[in-house]
Amino acid sequence: MAIVNRDLDSSQQVLNFTSTVNVGTTFGGMTNGIAVIPCPGQLVGAGVACMGLSGAPNLSLWINRFVVGTGFTAINVGASLVAQALGTSGGQTFNVGSGVTWSLQAGDVICLASAGANTAIQACTVTLAVKALQDIKSSFGASV
Questions:
Q1: pLDDT of residue 1
Q2: What is the CATH number of the domain that holds 64?
Q3: Which of 31, 66, 111, 133 is 20 to 30 A from 76, alpha carbon to alpha carbon?
């Protein structure tokens, strides 16, 4: 059911999740969980800022979903970028797809994956913008 609460404008219907991932030095790829989605929603935006970066790893977003009886599914959001250091680029925005709907279910885990060498990344801060799709929602079973 769509949000029909006339007291909330569209910006108040968006939930923001911010997570800092301590990456450390790696010479291959790595995947980190960023957020567990508490209620049905739609991924509408994402941004990242990397601190202590030396090199240019490729970062991408994934939706990891587990369905009882079906199993685990990894869904590539298709949003990727070549990370640049915060001091030279500021925050960077993932293109989550114009006109593309990334529906999220309660319990989905949004992950940040990196490919290539991260020769000196110390941390990446990722912010997700998720539009709530229901008036009455529960977070992990608790009504809010």
A1: 46
A2: 2.60.120.230
A3: 133
